[in-house]
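WP5 quarterly update. Target: Bifunctional heparan sulfate N-deacetylase/N-sulfotransferase 3. Source organism: Phalacrocorax carbo. Length: 515 aa.
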Amino acid sequence: MSFIMKLHRHFQRTVILLATFCMVSIVISAYYLYNGYKQENELSEISSEVECGDLQLLPYKLMEMKTVKPIDPLRTHLVVLVFVESQYSTLGQDIITILESSRFQFHIEIAPGKGDLPVLIDKNKGKYALIVYENILKYANMDSWNRGLLDKYCIEYGVGVIGFHKGNENSLQSSQLKGFPFHVHSNLGIKDCCINPHSPLLHVTKSSKLEKGPLLGNDWAVFQINHTAYQPVIFAKVKTPENLSPPAAKSALHATVIHDLGLHDGIQRVLFGNNLNFWLHKLIFIDAISFLSGKKLRLSLDRYILVDIDDIFVGKEGTRMNTNDVQALLDTQNLLRAQITNFTFNLGFSGKFYHTGTEEEDEGDDLLLRSVDEFWWFPHMWSHMQPHLFHNESSLVEQMILNKKFALEHGIPTDLGYAVAPHHSGVYPVHVQLYDAWKKVWNIRVTSTEEYPHLKPARYRRGFIHKNIMVLPRQTCGLFTHTIFYKEYPGGPKELDKSIQGGELFFTVVLNPVS
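Structure tokens (predicted):
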């Protein structure tokens, strides 16, 4: 009897232990299931409550830990395959401009509505390290056979895809991109753009809170993602969130650029919800090329900048520098030196015009010369005459000697070995007498021009060497002797500000290691 009682008690203990174990298992399973659900959905829940400055609250550090098969750029040629809508499409031209400016090799194809893809493999090596689609819908809606071939190539050779989606009058307000587990909302206006600081794409782009305000256009697309395989890169708020389906909170942040981490199908992609007109999209595009090519198609972060200020002392009365202008130049130089090591303005002087202004402007000339050691100096011809107008070398030498004499009298250095000709005359096409005179009088070793081989487009400018003088490709900033007044700038001050803040001048520095 006692044996049966013991067996009964042992059985009870076993049942209790099993029940306890089951309960613990259920609790643990529920915990991980909840966390998995939460990780996939907390973006949409939290993003409606945060501002751009609160992005550290978003859960992207969790996503950084997940990676796909490492990119192996050695298995492909370093060429970008670009599928454009047409030979003259605006976005296609913008893509090509950035690739050309970055000195990256590329091949253009018209995106086929139907038909075969170009040859992707050459002697067991991939022909392309990256694929760019001007219209991501051409990629998403490709027939299954060609899509399968392209995806297989991308997986096998570790090739990424960049695509652009821009709304038009025929776009659905809300749609799911074929083959992808997310929705796209099109034809929207957006505002208050900011960057996800945890994105692994960032290289040239620096994450920071951007100024608030609306962005141009009502043809933006935003991506609604609730999956950790997709990481937002750029956020913005929708100007009219009630147009979304379902309507979103006014403070909600939506992704205008997303990074497909490749966890879904082994292919990494970066998708843009508009074109490249927005300057930040251009920066992210540059960074996406770098990241998806395994950092082989990458711009260095080093920049070497020399700011030449031609025509010192030149100009009619009322347009020349006074003491306030000179002091502002010194203050600006000190401000830039706090950010750029050894930054120094390089002043090109024409001595004939010294003290030919008003009394205030002559005082400005004197302050410049009292500050001579604060700047670098280069000769810019005594009378600002264009060298090609001098038909013999002796006349050029005479002009240069006058400018050198002026320099010696006023303590201006004469041994820097750099000169610029007025209007770049005689540098290219080459005026032989100029090069010979430069060597004789100034021992010039370096000059620059914006004319070789052509003035426009600027990205085609190159350097060359002639008679042992190195000719650097010179870039311009839109400021000339006739555009020195801010309020009178051609097109208005906003045109100059636009060039500086993400426009032509901004990208001159971004895309040129030396400028």
